[in-house]
Amino acid sequence: MASSELIRQISRTSASKIVLIAIDGLGGLPLAETGKTELETANTPNLDALAARSVCGLSDPVGAGITPGSAPGHLTLFGYDPVSCLIGRGVLEALGVDFALGPDDVAARGNLCTVDENGLVTDRRAGRVTTEKNQELCRLLDGQEIDGVRIIVRLVKEHRLVVIFRGGGLSAGVNDSDPQQEGVTPKEVTAVEPEAKANRTAAIANQFIARAKAALAAHYPANMVLLRGFSKQPELPTMTEIYKLKPAAIASYPMYRGLARVAGMKVLETGATPEEEAETLKQNFKNHDFFFVHIKATDTAGEDGDFNRKVAVLEEVDRALDKVIGLEPDVIVVTGDHSTPALLKGHSWHPVPVLLYSRWCRPDGVSRFSESACISGGLGRIAATEIMPLAMANALKLDKFGA
Fold first, then answer.
1. 365 vs 54, 249, 373, CA distance in Å?
2. What is the per-residue pLDDT across 155-196, written as a single tens digit (0 to 9) for each?
3. Alpha carbons 92 and 233: distance in angstroms, whole number
4. CATH number (domain holding residue 360)
5. Exposed/middle/buried for 380, CB within 10 Å: 0-12, 13-18, 19+?
C-alpha cells in the first residue's frame, strides 16, 4: 500500500471528477435454495453494463478474516489505514448530528434496546423503535449531572442516540457496555487504561446506564440503553491535504456524515433514497471533484436478515445509477465498506465486490457485478486502502514517482 505521505507528494489537482458509491454491507452469502447471494439475485442491468466497461475485483476492508466495523470499513475506502486511524463510533455519531464536541468531551454511541426480566438483551435495537419515540426518550435521559460531569443525550435516528460526557478528568479509555449479541447481559463499563481518568469515566458511565434503565423501565421495548465507541475528537489529515481534492459527501445517515466531516468533506443536504442521492449529485456535480455517495439501506436489510429487501434496495440503487452514469464522471467506483449477509444478520469478514470505471482502465471481461464474477476480475483481491490511489491514478491526478 502506498503511504498517505507518498500520495500527498505526487497528487495534483485537475478538472477530472471521481464518484465513489459505497453500498453499505454490499457483500452477501448465497441462499441454499438458489446458490445466489443478494447481489447475484438482484436484477442490476446498469451495474452489469458498467462492470463490463470496468476493471473489477474483491477487496478486504481491514484484512483477510477481519470483520470490520462501519468506521474502519469506510476509512479504508478513503485511503486511511483503518488500524492507525481508528475513530470511535461516539465521535462519528456526534459529528453526524452536527454536535460541536469540546476537546475534553467523551462521546459514546447509544442503542435503545430491550432486556427481559432476567436482564438479558433480547433485542439490541428495541424493534428499531421509531425516531419520534427515540426523541421523546432522549429528552428523558438528557441533562443529568454525575460527579460534576454533565450528560448530554442527542437523537441520531431510529433506535440510535449519542451520549456526550462533558467535564474535566475524563478518558475515552473504557470498554463498551454493548455485548454485540443477544441472549446475554449488558457488559459493565470498565477502564482499559491504567489511568485514574479511565476509572472515573467508567464509574460515571455505569451510573448513567443504571439511571437510564430506571428511567426507561416503563417504555418497553426501549427499556435499556447500550453504549459503545467511547471516543474523543480525532485529528486526521484531510482528503484535501492528502489528495488535493475538493471532496463532498452525499449521505443521509448521521454517522457517515460525521465520518465525512472527519475526512474533511463538505457534507451536502440530501434525501435518503438512491434516486434522491443521485439527484443531489447532479445538482452539485460542477462544484466538487470527488463525491462520496453512501447507501445505507442495504446494510440495514442485511442486519435485519431480510434477504429480499436487500435485493430490492440493490435494484433501486441500480436504477439510480443511470443518472450517475449520465453525468459522465471520469472515474466511477462502486463497492462497499464490508459485507452484511442477510443469512448472518450482521457484518462479516467476506471480501467485497469492487468495480472501477474510467477511460483509462483495462476492462477485464467481467460482465456481471457480483461476488462470483468479480473474483476473476483484473484487480484480483486487493486491500480496500488501494482503491483511492487507483481512483486517483485513473483520474490522472497522480504524478510520476521518482526520476
1. 9, 31, 10
2. 998 999 999 999 989 999 999 999 999 999 999 999 998 889
3. 9
4. 3.40.720.10
5. middle
Q: Are residues 242 and 384 in the same domain?
A: yes
403 within some domain:
no
Query: How many other CB atoms are found less than 10 A from the CB of residue 382?
Result: 16
Q: Which residue stretches of 64-175 are H helix?
A: 70-77, 89-96, 131-141
Q: Model-level pTM?
A: 0.82
**Cβ neighbours, 10 Å, residue 152:** 18
Q: Is residue 174 classed exposed, middle or buried when 0-12, 13-18 and 19+ CB atoms within 10 A define those classes?
A: buried
If you search the block for the grid coordinates 497528487, which residue do you land on?
11
In tens, the pLDDT along 356-389 reads: 999 999 999 999 999 999 999 999 999 999 999 9
391 vs 385: CA distance, rounded Å:
11
Domain region containing 208? 92-231
Q: Which three cell numbers stand for residue 289?
A: 471533484
Q: Which of 50, 143, 90 is nearest to 367 (CA)?
A: 50
- Of 186, 209, 231, which residue sits at a domain end? 231
Whether residue 110 is found in the same domain as residue 18: no
Residue 213 lies in a domain: yes
User: CB–CB of 292/265 below 8 Å?
Assistant: yes
In angstroms, the CA 309 to CA 238 distance is 36
Phi, psi of 70 (to 5 degrees): -65, -40
Examine residue 399 and state whether it is found in any structural domain, yes or no.
no
Q: Both 263 and 303 in a single domain? A: yes
45 preceded by a cis bond (ω within 30 of 0): no
Residues 204 and 258 in one domain: no
Q: Among 203, 231, 259, where does a domain finish?
A: 231
Q: What is the largest CA-CA distance in the chain?
A: 71
Distance between CA atoms of residues 172 and 104, nearest Å: 10
pLDDT bin (cut points 50, 70, 90) of residue 275 is very high
Within a domain: 21: yes
